[in-house]
Amino acid sequence: MTVRTERLPYGVGRLTGGWYVLIGVLLAFVVLGLYAYSRQLAVGEAVTGMRDIGTMGGATWGLYVAFVVYFVGVSFAGITVAALIRLMNLEFLKPIARMAEVLTVIALILGAFSILADVGRPLRAILNLFRYARPQSPFFGTFTLVISGYLFASLVYLYLDGRRDAALLARIPGKLQGFYRAWAAGYRDTPAERERHERASFWLAIAILPLLVTAHSTLGFVFGIQVGRPGWFSALQAPGFVLLAGVSGVGLLIVIAAILRKVLNVPDQLSPQVFRWLANFLMVLTVAYLYFVIVELLTTTYAAHYHEVEVSRALLVGEYAWLYWASLAFLVVPFLVLFAQFITQRYNIPLIVLSGMLVNLAAIGKRYLIVVPSQTHGTLLPYGTGAYAPTWVEYSIVLGLFALGALLFVLFVKLFPIMEVPETLVSEGAAQQVIEGG
Amino acid sequence: MARYAMVIDLERCTGCRACVEACKVENNTPTANLWMYVFRFEEGEYPNTHVWFMPRPCMHCDNAPCVKVCPVGARYKRLDGLTATDWERCIGCRYCEVACPYGVNYFNWKDPAENYYLDWNDEDLAAVTGGTTPPYRNPDLDQPYGSEQRRVAGGGRAKGVIEKCTFCVHRVEQGLLPACVANCPLFALHFGDLDDPNSTVSRLLRRKPSFRLLEEQGTQPRVYYIGGKPPTTETRQIEEVKARV
User: Fold this and answer.
1) Residue ranges per domain, chain B?
2) Mean of per-residue pLDDT scores for chain B
3) Does the residue A325 lie in any domain?
4) Residue A375 domain-assigned?
5) In a domain, A103, yes or no
6) From CA B136, how far away is CA B28, in angstroms rounded?
7) Looking at the DSSP assignment, which residues form a beta bridge with residue B202?
8) Nearest Cα residue to B25 out of B227, B192, B148, B183
9) Domain of A114: which CATH number?
10) Which residues of A touch B106 (CB under 8 A)?
11) What's the CATH architecture for B4-238?
12) Among A114, A338, A383, B157, which residue is least crowded by beta carbons within 10 Å?
């Protein structure tokens, strides 16, 4: 009896030279991040550019917190898009559902790691949050709703959504068969099972959408209800966070989808229609966020009190002006590009991808501008202006986190089909195998 | 239960910063951590300028923003009105620091042992000190305090935790005055119990008009200023202590 190894779809389980190089490069960056973190653990956070607000004239939250917010923001895309596909029956978007879910899970893990990079005593943080957590702290929502609840819901959704494919792949002999069998966990894709899964994922999708709004809002409240920091105290902070999360998340999803389209060579599944829908979604989110930016700008310059105006001045014409205007341009230009495509109904995938990249740069810039200037330029007592510049340790750790995220994504792509497996592909293979085996 | 408060007489303060020094010696705080700080202010245009001084301890707010945001309850209000920091519970997220409008929190960016003005374990110094305990290692600082018996006194505890002015809880519990108050050569600083109508602070606040810093923030500070006015947006800091780790 000859056992023929079937080729798994989408290059799963096959690592060629290029992949090894990619994984090696990513690992190198992860190691760089780990080395930087080891320096921080050994010496203390004196190796970062952060210092105390007040007499030390620094910012006590810096790049790490900006990236906590950015990573959690990126997680928006995945599960929203996946839930929208499920709830609104957007069949043609099915191919991006799983990559969106994986993006969410990975982004949330990176967000959690960024928090650990920021806190002074990471081990104690994990223990004490279980022992002494206080719901009155805005951080409570970050830890429970975002990092725990949201991550858990996303993992369950990813699991349920992948079960059918796991069951199909488990029929194909190979090294990964055991893994697929474990994932499928007895699922055999009978009509009754499929019906039950449909129902479960429908209700989970319904539950995830409000969780998404509340989770991203709690992160906005971390800043938005702090009266002591000019520039933060604003009711727009929470909804603004939700929107910018959507902008960065959908933008990154577009970039990832385009890369996978090229690498896996699947232009038919990831059709231009998919990109058209994502581009329109991104356009709507971007223009909504721009509206928020303008409303906020008018409020904080026209009628705000002295310290509020000081922070605005630092943003508009002062020390942070280059970053502020660059971020704004990276939102306006993509919007105009996407809008022009929408009007002419002629969509160009490279331009859409470029827009996705630009809005992500803008999102990182905006996160930084929310976190830092209110500390360096927003002291209510006359301490004088502070300064903050990240050091190589902070840059390396952030770079390491990005590399870790990319690495996890690559490994997932090689472990499990990143897109839904077409029925025909597997059933033919399985049928063939039955014949040969028999 | 007492209701402690501090009254600072701006008319008497000469900006000598003896309180800053006393605090550092008493509480063993690392370099650049100024739990007590004295602003030297200037107002007006030459030649019509006015220079004045304003000590800035922790305000020990009753509605403290730092207590509200602490995710683990390391920063908490004691029954006697002191806002305390349990360094054994602090996770070092520094949320209290961004929430505080007064800028009184100090994070231990380095291991405090490596961040003192004088390295007590230095070889040359050992010849003089003979390996004795440093004088700033006051055993009182290591005791648990209050009905909740938490270790909240003193500074320079551990890397990666927040510390701030404790109102010298270890002295107050023994009936002593905070170090800054006890060492002010001009009696500009007063400390006492607002529930006791005969205490110095009660009498001063009855007699003189007072203000509290950034009262409009709703923080309800327990530090009152008399004999002056709050800094305005026209107030400039001069002779700033440029201390950075």
Assistant:
1) 4-238
2) 93
3) yes
4) yes
5) yes
6) 6
7) none
8) B183
9) 1.20.1630.10
10) 52, 56
11) 2-Layer Sandwich (3.30)
12) A383
One-character DSSP codes across A149-197: IIHHHHHHHHHHHHHHHHHHHTTS-STTHHHHHHHHTT----HHHHHHH
> What percentage of chain B exceeds 90 in pLDDT?
80
- Measured between CB atoms, does B93 come within 8 Å of chain A? yes
DSSP assignment, residue B30? Answer: P
Phi, psi of A431 (to 5 degrees): -65, -45
- A53 contacts on B by Cβ (under 8 Å): 97-98, 100, 103, 105
Taking the C-alpha atoms of residue A242 and residue B51, their distance in angstroms, rounded to an integer, is 48
Q: Above 90 in pLDDT, residue A236? A: yes
How many structural domains compose chain A?
1
Residues near A133 by beta carbon (within 8 Å), at least 6 away in sequence: A140, A143, A144, B71, B72
The label of the residue with tokens 């830092």 reads A372
Q: At what angle do helices A63-88 and A392-415 cross, to 10 degrees?
A: 30
The mean predicted confidence, pLDDT, of chain A is 90
- Whether residue A3 lies inside any domain: the answer is no
Q: What is d(CA A434, CA A77) in angstroms, rounded to the nearest whole number? A: 41
The predicted pLDDT at position A1 comes to 39
Q: A56 vs B32: CB contact, 8 Å cut-off?
A: yes
Q: CA of A109, closest CA in chain B: separation in Å?
A: 18
Say what the pLDDT of residue B120 is: 76
Say if B111 is an interface residue toward chain A (CB within 8 Å).
yes
CA A149 to chain B, closest CA, distance in angstroms equals 17
3-state secondary structure (DSSP) of residue B54: strand
- The mean per-residue pLDDT over the stretch A318-345 comes to 97
DSSP state of A10: G
Min Cα separation A119/chain B (Å): 4
- Does B225 touch chain A if contact means CB atoms closer than 8 Å? no
Whether B32 contacts chain A with CB within 8 A: yes
| Domain coverage including residue A401 | 9-437
Where is pLDDT greater, at B76 or B240?
B76
